[in-house]
From TrEMBL:
Matches recorded under SUPFAM superfamilies: DNA/RNA polymerases (SSF56672)
Protein's name according to its UniProt entry: Reverse transcriptase domain-containing protein
Signal peptide: none
One GO BP: DNA biosynthetic process
Family annotation (Pfam families): RVT_1
Domain Reverse transcriptase: 50-315
């Protein structure tokens, strides 16, 4: 049955759109669409319904304008020094949003997106995925096992999506009327590059999902939904970031299980014309001596490391969070030096604005995913607390005899441990009502007796 959009749906999306978003080459902005009269909304709704019925995506909406932004401290003569920003026509994004509203219920009903995929999904966050992995690591530490892991990154993931392969999967997953419009959406796309006021010629796009589009992320999730998994492995994906964990009391067997999983994934990547970055590291999490034997990907040995960075968190070999806290403390020091002229003792800025800068710039650095690293030891948490003490003394220009407790009380600034309790409480309430069964299961063994005297999230 063909899709049909209503004026109410169209008006709701227009109202939620950001008027400050940059337009495409057609220069039509969200503000222009928000100022449309009733007749304009009626006309566009009729136009979108006609396009859907004909399964046709206009060629004018399939032209991306690429703006090149120079990265900080990079040479302007090198192409790699620029960050490309893809600007698409705003009417195209509005139409994609309407289509996405019709596609998401079908994906949920048919369970087309695997549970281990947490990227680009409603009510799924990076902390949920990292929590799954750290929970598996803690279980292996409790069992005195070796947990070997591989953290993979698909090279240019969104730009390397094979159109023929994606259309094949869409044909088998979605109804014919949706497949037809998505096929038209992917084919005959072009881009042009803008440098200052100069524009290049139109160039065809042969692969990849459109960057900056609304449907691009969902199409990528559908393309990678059949990533091979195994009951002997713990697989976690967040968009193109993939983590694979294997645990066993024998380090050789743990590496063997991981190697078998990597071999299957390598074959899958070759089949669907994707390429993984072999420079990503393999880590072994254990309280015992030694580590697991090395593994290979595409016949290239993957380097081993004592710690790994995944979704913004640093996981060390014994999961003490020491590496993560040290990294955040270093980052806080750098940012504080940059802001010293504003929040330092000699700054003429008001106390209210100094506190505002601290809460807006410095505090989010160390509170990021505090629900997980907040289980660290008291000595490691005190590293962050000492930084906050120094920052508050600097902001208020307090004398040496003023107690830290008084500064926290007068400024109504919670301590680090109070922040841990507050964030953990809200996270626990959210995870118990999580739509993903893999996330809800994290609370099942929360009160289980444990060998190690460690806090858990």
């Amino acid at each position: 049955m063909p899709l049909k959009f209503t004026k109410t749906e169209f008006a709701r999306i227009i109202k939620k759109s950001d008027p400050k978003k940059s337009p495409g080459y057609d220069l039509i902005t969200n503000r222009i669409l928000q100022e449309l009269p009733e007749s304009g909304i009626t006309f566009l709704t009729s136009l979108f319904n006609t396009l859907t019925r004909l399964q046709f995506f206009p060629l004018e909406w399939k032209v991306a304008q690429i703006v090149m932004l120079l990265k900080p401290d990079k040479q302007p003569e090198e192409a790699k020094s620029y960050r490309p920003i893809s600007l698409l026509p705003i009417p195209s994004k509005i139409y994609e949003s309407l289509l996405l509203q019709k596609i998401l219920p079908i994906l949920k009903e048919k369970r087309l997106i695997p549970d281990h995929q947490f990227g680009f999904r409603n009510k799924h966050a990076t902390i949920d995925q990292v929590h799954r992995l750290t929970n598996k690591i803690m279980e292996s530490l409790e069992a005195k096992s070796y947990c070997t892991s591989a953290f993979l990154d698909i090279s240019q993931a969104f730009d390397r999506v094979w159109h023929a392969g994606l259309l094949f999967k869409l044909k088998n997953a979605l109804p014919d009327h949706l497949y037809g419009i998505l096929k038209s959406f992917l084919q005959q796309r072009h881009f042009m590059v803008q440098s200052v006021e100069a524009l290049s010629d139109l160039c065809p796009i042969q692969a990849g999902v459109p960057q900056g589009s609304v449907l691009g992320p969902i199409l990528y999730l559908l393309f990678t939904a059949d990533l091979p998994t195994s009951e002997s492995l713990t697989t976690g994906t967040f968009a193109d970031d993939t983590a694979i964990l294997a645990a066993h009391r024998d380090p050789k067997i743990a590496s063997q299980i991981l190697q078998e999983g990597l071999n299957v994934i390598s074959d899958w990547l070759k089949k669907w014309r994707l390429k993984a970055n072999e420079k990503k590291s393999v880590s072994t999490f254990t309280l015992r001596r030694g580590s697991c034997p090395p593994v290979t990907l595409n016949n290239i040995e993957v380097p081993q490391a004592d710690h790994v960075r995944y979704l913004g968190l640093h996981l060390d070999k014994r999961l003490t969070w020491q590496k993560h806290i040290f990294t955040k403390r270093k980052q806080l020091g750098i940012q504080t030096r940059k802001l010293y002229w504003l929040i330092g003792r000699k700054s003429q800025l008001s106390l209210e604005n100094k506190i505002l800068l601290y809460k807006a710039i410095l505090k989010p650095i160390w509170t990021y995913r505090i629900q997980l690293w907040g289980t660290a030891s008291h000595s490691n948490i005190e590293i962050i607390q000492r930084f906050q003490n120094k920052a508050l003394r600097m902001i208020t220009n307090a004398s040496w005899f003023v107690p830290n407790e008084l500064l926290h009380h007068d400024l109504r600034m919670p301590t680090v441990k109070q922040e841990i309790v507050r964030h953990t409480k809200s996270y626990k309430e959210r995870i118990q009502q999580h739509p993903n069964t893999l996330a809800r299961s994290l609370m099942e063994n929360h009160n289980k007796a444990r060998r190690l005297k460690r806090k858990i999230p």
